[in-house]
Amino acid sequence: MKFNLRNLIEKKPWLGWVLFFVTTGVVFVLGVLAASIIQRRAEATLLNVPLYELTEFEPRNEMWGKAYPREYETYQRMADTSYTSKYNGSAMRDALGEDPRLVILFAGYSFALEYNQPRGHIYAIDDIHNILRTGAPNEDTPEMQTASCWTCKSPDVPRVINEIGAANFYKTPWSGMISEIVNPIGCANCHNADDMTLKIKQVPLIEAYERQDKDIMQATLNERRSLACAQCHVEYYFKGEGKYVTFPWDKGMSVEAIEEYYNTYEFADWIHQLSKTPIIKAQHPDYEIFTTGVHYSRGVSCADCHMPYVREGSQKLTDHQVQSPLNNIENSCMVCHRESKEELIANVYDRQDKVYQQKLLLEDLLVSSHIETAYAIELGATDEQLIPIHKFLRAAQWRWDYVAASHGSSFHSPVECLRIISAGIEKASHARIEIARLLADLGYNKAVEIPDLSTKAKAQEYIGLDMKKLQSDKNEWVEKKLPNWLAIAKERESKIPEPKRIK
Amino acid sequence: MLQIKNIIASILPPAKWRVPVIIVLGTLCGVVLYNFYVSRAWSYLSDDPATCINCHVMTTQYVTWRHSSHREYATCNDCHVPQDNIFRSYYFKAMDGLRHSTIFTARTYKQSIRIRAPGNKVVMENCIRCHGELTEMVKANVTYKETLEGNGKKCWDCHKEVPHGTVRSLTTTPWAEVPAPKSPVPEWIK
Fold this sequence. Notes:
heterodimer; A: mainly alpha; two-stranded antiparallel ribbon; B: mainly alpha; 10 helices; 52% helix
């Protein structure tokens, strides 16, 4: 007889029941499997839950350190300032002392007072307290800066901006925030408190993306590993009366596009003391220049070299000692490049040397231009006669500063740097032709005497700075005034509860 | 045709059973479909490395690759699945995938997950597939089969760190940022 299930079940009804219970069993097991899958998926999201309940705006790095001790330990290593490379490194270096020409180029602006190559992030707060550019604000001495200057210094910034709004923050006098902003650049500047994912919190960067109709929250992990740095390592300016921190990217991110943006506003950071040129101060367009380089186009992010993956015992983690990759060649360069350490360092210095060499040519042209223009003004040059000189001098100094102020760009993108500098040399040459014509018109046809600028002190004296008084005022302020604000901060922070342990 | 009809006729339930049987079969299909959905089974057809950390035990492998220079050029499948023809590729993927999902579900994996012999062979094939010119000299002298017999070295006998590094256990990369599977609960129900 042929097999026929229907007939079979009609003959033996219990077979029907067997089939029923087998089906029930299969559905049940599938249900258990589904539950298992869901549970294992939930595990994946629980893996990155910290031991302590951190809040989104927890500014105290040591509190994050409780939850992430290994990362925090590497972060603390930034306190080590012993490494110096040929041009930079982790130590504080006196940029004006190393190159006194800068005093002339920044004459009339606070950068002529004191300008240092930066130490690690961990010193951000100490260094902004101590630098002459922030002055010694007292009841009777005016503020030199607004709170905009704090924007890149601390995880307290996103916290305060969240409380009072960005516009209110920026327009507060600088000293008005000394007791609020006390924790150096750290965890909360880049990380989500829930699971340590990278999160962009810098208002001006988010706004710059919004103005270009882009949503920064959609950036991929690899992009965020650079954008986290672009929160600060970019060209920015303080817009309008409210000193609103703004990234000038609306027309593009090239040196020309940013210049065009500033020119449409006729923006100037200051009027040059000697030549009366309206100058744009370049901040540090590190990210902008990096994106023109070969490492960026190969998909390398900032963190890949400046915060490489390191092994500690059985664990691997991102090194939070943000520093020059030259101090850690094995974990940075050599992950991709197979050359020897010495050769790699030589390759970097070779590129940097060439950029610095050309940068100095432009610098000398600029120094001469400012001093010669000042002489022309002394001889009675009119504002109208100065217009073409100012135009070229502004463009030339912008190009020089764009390269000079950026950190590491002579390596990140040497070709772009040399392109910008050579364009700057061309602009400066035009400026000097105009100056020569003007001097001739004014009846002077000889070389203008360039003073002795061989040291920082001589250069500062030449532009009439009383450094002794500035420094002693500052020292007094640091000793007597600053501790009051810091005491208020300590009192305020002592009231914030410590994060709770959750597992 | 007739035969198929006969088979269907032979398993069709009696008339009075039909409605309950349809419902039970529907339930069965529903649960199977749900499992398909919640395990993101379709993602296994793709080459997206995020698929490989559907099971979070592979996170260390994912993260170490993510921090290596190989991330710019090779996905997991480029090295760990045969790339010479599509049938072998999917057959290998299916066999490996079934084994992995069974081990993961039963939690029988070890603290340090190690590659097996068939996987080794595929990886070495793929080393040579991409680094063909570079390995001309080596290939002239040694084949994978010979390395198994102890004659000559496999690629990673020397290039130990490529690309995952030498230390990789389940707990090697805590706090690493990896794409977490999205919640299976649809937006409209939340």
